[in-house]
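Training component of the fellowship. As part of building independent skills, the fellow (R.M.) carried out the full modelling exercise for a liganded target. The chosen ligand was manganese (II) ion. The inputs are recorded below so that the supervisory panel can assess the work.
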Amino acid sequence: MIIMKTGATDVEIARVVREVQKYGLKADVSRGEFRTVIGLVGDERKIPFSHFAVLPGVKEAMMVETSYKLISREYSKLSGENGERRLIKVKNTSIGSDEPVFIAGPCAVENKQQLFKIAEGIKKAGAHMLRGGIFKPRSSVHSFQGLGANGREGAEEALSWLREAGEKFEMPVITEVRGETQVDLIADYVDILQIGARNMYDQDLLSAVARKKKPVLLKRHFGAGIEEFLSFAEYIAAEGNKDIILCERGIIPIGKGKSYTRYTFDLAAIPAIQKETYLPIIADPSHATGRHDLILNMSCAAIAAGANGLMLETHYNPQDAWVDGQQTITPDELESIIDACQRIRRDLPIVTKDE
Ligand code: PEP
Ligand code: MN
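Fellow's submitted model of the complex:
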């Protein structure tokens, strides 16, 4: 990491960037109100920090051990941005403010009528964004894989419904990208690209999605520690895309016996992650619990823990949903949850404070 002096000129900054590139690394230039900080991206072993320390305009050049420096609060504090939470603007809404954002929709898009009816219902309930799965990660190859499995035409048709529903009900739309071959196609249709829990470790997919320069929603793998989760988010930031929305969706306990929930909702990860990074983090009580009867309680708990928003699987008829019906709520239930969460956020403003 190279910290420039207050008042370092553009010419001095450009010189440092050129020198960094000479060593085969990329430079992430973060211009704060008072200072510019340059993060080195790549294999830092060959960098002679003493050489950089004496270049004009440089205050300090140092090796930073953490594997997620570009998204760390420390990095943004150095450039004078006070480590403030990043506000990610997506069309008519934004994630990262004190106002929680509610993302809802069916686990899987089934047909146009289903998607539009759900979109209308969640909009009325107060949701801000529409999510629908088109390429579904499934444990069995013999189960419904999402309409994206119906070849390119089937995928494009479903994606166009998603875009149309988003336009009609004035909500940004989001869907999961399951593999690198889908990146270009999906990025043409949606506002936010989701990386599912199973793909959190796919660094090539993370880089490919990041290069689309659209916000990325990254879900935590169910076996990943917090440091590991943030280290993989760093792959997105390393492509120059810091519009990253993190998502806590539950982890797997070690030990025998029934758990009674699909995963273990790691609520403490929410404030712990907010202390480490300026990126917003939302929670997914649907996959974390796998139980519609626990969604209200755990949504309130996640908001009380400081989550910047929630993602909730919603369907007008959960028992008929093709995928994940047991954890799906109705638009009416969504409305009550949004109302309860907004009241909690109003009454407990302290939970959103970072320090
Ligand atoms: C999903 O969000 O639809 C999903 C499959 O969740 P996860 O990747 O967290 O398992
Ligand atoms: Mn699901």
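The panel noted the following from the submitted structure. The CA atoms of residues 7 and 210 lie 31 Å apart. Residues 2-63 form a domain with the Alpha-Beta Plaits fold (CATH 3.30.70.1140).
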